[in-house]
Amino acid sequence: MGARPAPGSADGPPPRPLLSRLAGARDALVTVALSAAAAVAIGIVRAPAAALEKRVAETSDVYVLPPPDEVVTLSLGYRSALADLLWSHVLVSQGLHTMERRRFENLTLLLDAINALDPTFRDPYLFADALITFQTSTTPHDEVVKAREIMERGVQNRPLDGEIWLALGQFVAFIAPASYLTDPAEKAQWRLDGARMLARAAELGGNDANISWQALGGAGILGRAGEREAQIRFLQRTLAVTDDEGLKQQIRAQLDKLLGEQAAEAYRRRIDGFSEIWRRDLPFVSKTAILVLGPPRDPAYCAGGAHADEPRCATTWSAWAERVAGER
Question: Model-level pTM?
Answer without folding.
Answer: 0.69
